[in-house]
Specification:
Layout (H helix, E strand, L loop, with lengths): L1 H18 L3 H13 L3 H14 L4 H13 L3 H14 L4 H13 L3 H14 L4 H13 L3 H14 L4 H13 L3 H13 L3 H10 L5
Helix pairs in contact: 2-3, 2-4, 3-4, 4-5, 5-6, 6-7, 7-8, 8-9, 9-10, 10-11, 11-12
Length: 205
């Protein structure tokens, strides 16, 4: 009887040992839920991963992404900031925090994060584009145009970059340059760019 009881206890302990999830298990589960659009479920798993491993950089970053998609921008910023604290050389964390700050209209702070992103990842066209948009929001049209120039160097057929550069040029007094950019934007598929051409330019040639 004692041997049977000992065997049962041993089996239960073995099952309990193998049923314990690791931080990596919870992280992978969170990724799966995120891919399915279950952001709240993903966040719960990332929390558990972080409880088991408080320095799990990827878990902080991924939780920030899920929070971002739930429009919890402040929560996302907190998670990105922790990821940056643990790994200051992670360009994605700097970039994502900048995007979240953009959504809170903290444009100057967003630009600082984009600056750091570019320092770590100099040829990222998305960062130049977003920094241009932020500068434009601060009415720094010259700075915005410079960043749209860099975006277009990396993505020559980017309709949005041409359209937005055209708007920045128009607002800075360069009507001819604006019309040229709007025409190109239209040629690249930005239909609303032609509305600007019709409204502000003499012709579409």
């Amino acid at each position: 009887m004692k041997n049977l009881l000992f065997s049962i206890i041993l089996i239960l302990n073995t099952v309990s040992l193998y049923s314990q999830k690791t931080a990596e298990d919870y992280y992978k589960s969170g990724i799966e839920k995120y891919d399915q659009g279950d952001y709240k479920g993903a966040i719960k798993d990332y929390y558990k991963a972080i409880e088991l491993n408080p320095e799990y950089v990827e878990a902080y970053y991924s939780r920030g992404v899920s929070r971002f998609y739930l429009v919890d921008y402040k929560g996302a910023i907190n998670d990105y900031s922790k990821a940056i604290e643990l790994n200051p050389d992670d360009a994605e964390s700097w970039y994502s925090r900048g995007v979240a700050k953009d959504h809170l209209k903290k444009y100057k702070e967003a630009i600082e994060d984009y600056n750091k992103t570019i320092e770590l990842k100099p040829y990222d066209s998305d960062t130049y584009y977003n920094r241009a948009v932020a500068k434009n929001s601060l009415k720094d049209y010259k700075g915005a145009i410079q960043d749209y120039d860099l975006t277009i160097e990396l993505r020559p057929d980017d309709a949005w970059a041409h359209n937005n550069r055209g708007t920045a040029k128009y607002l800075s007094g360069d009507k001819d340059g604006a019309c040229e950019d709007w025409n190109k934007a239209g040629d690249f598929g930005h239909e609303k760019a032609y509305d600007n051409v019709k409204k502000y330019c003499k012709s579409r040639e």
